[in-house]
Design a protein that fits this description.
Strand content of chain A: 15-25%
Number of domains of chain B: 2
Number of helices of chain A: 15
CATH architecture of the largest domain in chain A: 3-Layer(aba) Sandwich
CATH class of the largest domain in chain A: Alpha Beta
Helix content of chain B: 40-55%
Strand order of the largest sheet of chain B: 1-2-3
Number of strands of chain A: 22
CATH architecture of the largest domain in chain B: Orthogonal Bundle
Low-confidence stretches of chain B: 1-40, 360-366
Shape of chain B: elongated
Strand order of the largest sheet of chain A: 17-16-18-14-19
CATH topology of the largest domain in chain A: D-Maltodextrin-Binding Protein, domain 2
Distance between the termini of chain B: 5 Å
CATH superfamily of the largest domain in chain A: Periplasmic binding protein-like II
CATH topology of the largest domain in chain B: MetI-like fold
Number of domains of chain A: 2
Radius of gyration of chain A: 24 Å
Mean pLDDT of chain A: 90
Shape of chain A: globular
Strand content of chain B: 5-15%
CATH class of the largest domain in chain B: Mainly Alpha
Mean pLDDT of chain B: 82
Oligomer: heterodimer
Structural class of chain A: alpha+beta
Number of helices of chain B: 11
Largest interface: A-B, 38 and 32 residues
Structural class of chain B: mainly alpha
Number of strands of chain B: 3
Helix content of chain A: 25-40%
Low-confidence stretches of chain A: 1-28
């Protein structure tokens, strides 16, 4: 599910790339149970209640202490049974009958039943709670119907045949009804499990339990002795006894601590500027530097295409034209972009869906050539030419062909990306002003539509396009270039709406792929969002960690599978 | 004899009252703190300070001629490249060796000693350039993460940073001296109002005010608008620090005999304040200016961070330092990116030496 707050969460992190995808796996040697690792996050959790906050650290607390019905493996992208042992789909293709694992208990010993699942859905959908997860657990904007047919069986009915199916359930942490039901009934669930809650009250079915929270400094987790999952050898999981999460706001400090062995893993990836430092440390055996390949989602560059956004502005005649965006796509040398922005650790891309998303990438995506002359010709077709011989273009009214790009200050990747676009467009005569703002100011402008063009990372949480309707549908709240349209503003957006409606309703993968290929083709033709290069991701962990499964999953590239991480015996 | 509040020295001259008030004042007792250096040392330190500041001022003025490259010239294949060191030989013109990129991601370079590249004087409108600018540009302080010449940007940055700091400091001085002088001389309700206003400005959370201000301003601001805006903000924020000190000095000084005598002889309040009393705050104001100027240089970088500073690619020392701060390798591998810090240090040192010797730190007791 895409959402504005996902973007907010991304903004809080200094310089990271993208979400889940294929990844390598570090060498698993002899696994020894016990031990402790120290991880880092950039900010404190906003709450222990995952229903009300989506910041990275709250997400991490939830991942470590709560469990879900299914898990999407961040490496393989496959759906894995988790608290749900198995499920069957009825003939109507809407109703899933989910069989829960037996004899499971929460970390406080209370039995887990189907009522907890029903409660978790009720909590998420509760209007008073106003959960930020609610949208991500809807199909086509409609809620799922959930009931418990017996203590071990849950029946989930979708409003229509929804292709992603149970993938959607990965968004739901199963909360303890026996702890939180009174708060839900009192309409105060949103206030429950705040940061002042005693850690012992935060119970769940995740691999760890919260033991200590020191504001501004750290969180300590201990293994959950009642965790349900077993290791391949039949022994208990997690392997680790403790996980300590230090709050380190500065990325450079994070890297230095990792390099010096004070922490074992950090939030996000190794940015290109720090690669050499980490490589040196890896060469000395202090860290493992893991190459995950190009990210799934490149940074987006788009124009404000909301009708009337430039009313009264002479530039309205050309700022929202397809030709302008296509010309920009041709004018920017993507190789030079990757070299300058990612220090060479990037690959040219031409679509929202990058080749790293093997399941959904349209292999027919044309590689837009770097063609400044062609770009100039396209601009001339919409009246932009150099009329006074100063090397810069003017429009038909003689006004300079000039626009601004909004992006976030303090994120080298975005700052450099916008600067490269500015410099490349200057070569064809377009004048660009780069406005660097703090994250909140950028988001406020994007949401309110007070911008001309923007460069920003957009990070879906799942590779299946069916789980991102708010991006694809014209009515979507995250339809970047023109959000929440009452009806499609253009014919091609109407067509995308039709295709996506068919796509999420089809049970046949081949048919879904064909439909989504057509969506990507339309997007390529109209270029509402232009993509230049996808960063290659590197993740660093200390050399003492074993059995690590790093993934292109932005918030938690390593800790998404914390239960199977172990430490090398000293 | 004076009940010294500030510990700062009295007036250096009293126009129209030569000797009258001063004759009755006890000679100042200088503290053991930072005081003037006597004899040749005094001359030397002041000279050094003046020379340092003058060199930077000259560099700023002459940047278009001295800088080998424009402020936004990029060398895409030379991101974070080391400085090119000019070599001097008896048998050929001064020359440099070019840097070759060995590993792009690690930003490692090797020097190509196979082919010296001669320097070319007075060409392309600049003092000196490489004779092969495309392949082997002259990069005296290396390049930044965008591949831009740090030396050239340092010179252009000096224009922006020094002029902004100077204009802001002068603004702060004028506002601060006016407010402090009036408050100290007139006293009463005006004193109360001005000082409470100063207190209010001093406790304002400047960053949040800047953020709020940025939100209501147009998205793209022209550099001259940014300059005026920053100078105005800095002057306003810096003025209370001067006003409080000046007020204390004026309150103290106006009770002294020379001021009373000036009033008795019919000098107007404005004349007594401006000509006789305010000069007593000269040393204090000079000291404050020496502290405000570097603070303004750094503050510009802070405001740049929230989008209120100069837009890229305009160079200022603050924005250059901010860019450098995002790179963990700056100390170990790219120390030339810290050259703006060295420049700020030198300017501050020069200002301090020049002002110290001018008597700004002299103190009196009793």
């Amino acid at each position: 599910m895409l959402a504005v707050a996902a973007l907010l969460a991304a903004a809080c992190r200094t310089d990271t790339g993208s979400t889940s995808g294929a990844a390598g796996k570090s060498v698993s040697t002899s696994i020894v149970r016990g031990g402790e690792i120290v991880a880092s996050v950039r900010s404190e959790p906003r709450t222990f209640n995952r229903l009300t906050a989506r910041d990275t650290t709250t997400d991490l607390v939830s991942e470590l202490t709560q469990a879900k019905l299914v898990r999407i493996n961040k490496v393989t992208q496959a759906v894995e049974p988790w608290l749900a042992e198995s499920w069957t789909l009825a003939a109507d293709r809407r109703t899933y009958t989910i069989r829960l694992r037996q004899n499971l208990t929460f970390s406080d010993g209370h039995p887990f039943t189907a009522d907890d699942v029903v409660f978790a859905f009720a909590a998420v959908y509760d209007e008073k709670t106003g959960s930020i997860l609610a949208d991500s657990l809807k199909a086509g904007g409609k809620t799922l119907t959930v009931s418990a047919s017996d203590p071990q069986t849950v029946v989930v009915t979708f409003p229509f045949a929804f292709a992603p199916g149970v993938r959607l359930l990965e968004n739901l942490p199963i909360l303890p009804r026996h702890k939180l039901e009174p708060a839900l009934k009192a309409g105060k669930l949103a206030d429950a499990w705040g940061l002042s809650t005693p850690p012992s009250e935060v119970v769940g079915m995740g691999p760890f339990v919260l033991r200590e929270y020191t504001p501004g400094q750290r969180l300590r987790f201990e293994r959950n002795p009642r965790y349900w999952r077993r290791a391949p050898d039949g022994g208990p999981l997690p392997y680790l006894d403790r996980v300590t999460v230090d709050v380190i706001p500065d990325q450079n400090a994070e890297l230095l601590r990792l390099e010096s062995g004070q922490i074992d893993t950090m939030s996000g990836e190794v940015v290109p500027e720090s690669y050499a430092t980490m490589k040196r440390a890896a060469g000395e055996g202090r860290v493992q530097l893991l190459d995950l390949g190009p990210v799934l989602w490149a940074d987006s560059f788009w124009f404000n295409l909301k009708p009337g956004a430039f009313a009264g502005d002479a530039r309205a005649a050309w700022l929202q034209r397809d030709e302008l965006r296509r010309a920009i796509s041709m004018a920017v040398d993507r190789k030079a972009f990757a070299d300058a922005v990612f220090l060479g650790a990037g690959e040219p891309v031409y679509s929202f869906v990058t080749p790293a998303n093997k399941e959904w990438y349209w292999t027919g995506t044309p590689a837009t050539p770097h063609d400044p002359a062609g770009a100039k010709a396209l601009l001339a077709s919409i009246g932009l030419t150099d009329r006074n011989g100063d090397g810069l273009m003017e429009d038909a009214s003689g006004q300079p062909a000039r626009f601004s790009i909004v992006t976030q200050k303090g994120r080298p990747r975005l700052e450099r990306g916008a600067a490269v676009v500015r410099d490349e467009l200057k070569k064809i005569g377009l004048t660009v002003d780069v406005a660097l703002l703090d994250a909140n100011a950028v988001i406020e402008r994007l949401v309110s539509g007070r911008y001309e063009a923007a460069m920003y990372p957009i990070l879906p949480t799942d590779t299946d396009p069916g789980t991102n309707p708010d991006f694809w549908f014209s009515s979507g709240s995250f339809h970047l270039w023109n959000m929440s349209q009452p009806k499609p503003a253009t014919d091609w957006e109407r067509r995308i709406d039709e295709l996506m409606a068919q796509q999420i309703g089809s049970a046949d993968y081949a048919e879904r792929k064909r439909l989504f290929d057509e969506v990507q083709q339309i997007l390529y033709e109209h270029q509402p969002v232009v993509y230049f290069a996808a960063q290659k991701w590197y993740v660093a962990v200390s050399s003492r960690l074993v059995n690590v499964a790093p993934a292109l999953y932005q918030p938690l590239p390593v800790l998404w599978a914390a239960d199977t991480i172990a430490v090398r015996p000293r | 004899m004076s009940t010294d509040i500030t510990g700062l020295k009295g007036p250096r001259h009293i126009a129209g009252l030569k000797g009258a008030g001063r004759a009755e004042q006890a000679p100042p007792l200088r503290t053991a703190g930072p005081g003037p250096i006597k004899g040749a040392g005094r001359f030397s330190s002041r000279s050094i300070g003046v020379v340092i500041v003058a060199v930077w001022a000259l560099a700023a003025v002459a940047a278009p001629v001295v800088a080998p490259h424009a402020v936004d010239d990029r060398f895409p294949g030379l991101l974070n490249s080391p400085p090119t060191v000019p070599h001097v030989s008896f048998v050929q013109r001064p020359y440099i060796y070019r840097w070759m990129l060995v590993n792009q991601l690690e930003q490692r370079y090797e020097i190509d000693r196979g082919r010296p590249v001669p320097l070319r004087w007075f060409s392309g409108g600049t003092l000196v350039q490489s004779s092969d600018e495309a392949r082997a540009p002259l990069l005296l302080f290396g390049t930044d993460s965008y591949g831009r010449d740090v030396f050239s940007r340092l010179l252009y940055g000096a224009r922006m940073s020094l002029s902004l700091a100077l204009v802001s400091a002068v603004g702060a001085m004028l506002v601060g001296m006016a407010a402090g002088g009036l408050a100290g001389y007139v006293g009463g309700a005006l004193d109360e109002a001005l000082m409470r206003t100063s207190d209010f400005v001093m406790v304002l959370p400047a960053m949040y005010v800047a953020l709020a201000l940025r939100a209501v301003l147009p998205l793209v601001l022209a550099p001259r608008v940014v300059f005026a805006l920053l100078a105005g903000i800095f002057a306003l924020v810096g003025a209370p620090f001067i006003a409080r000190g000046v007020r204390a000095i004026v309150r103290s000084e106006r009770r002294l005999d020379y001021a009373v005598a000036a009033e008795a002889l019919g000098a107007s309040a404005a004349r007594v304040l401006v000509r006789h009393v305010l000069p007593a705050a000269g040393g204090f104001v000079a000291t404050e200016l020496a502290m405000l100027i570097p603070a303004f240089i750094v503050a510009e970088a802070t405001l740049s961070y929230v989008g209120l500073g100069f837009p890229d690619p305009i160079a200022s020392w603050g924005t250059m330092l901010h860019d450098a701060s995002t790179n963990i390798r700056v100390f170990a591998d790219f120390p030339w990116l810290l050259s703006p810090a060295a420049a700020i240090f030198l300017v501050v040192l020069g200002l301090n030496l020049a002002i110290e010797d001018a008597g700004g730190y002299e103190r009196t007791l009793g």
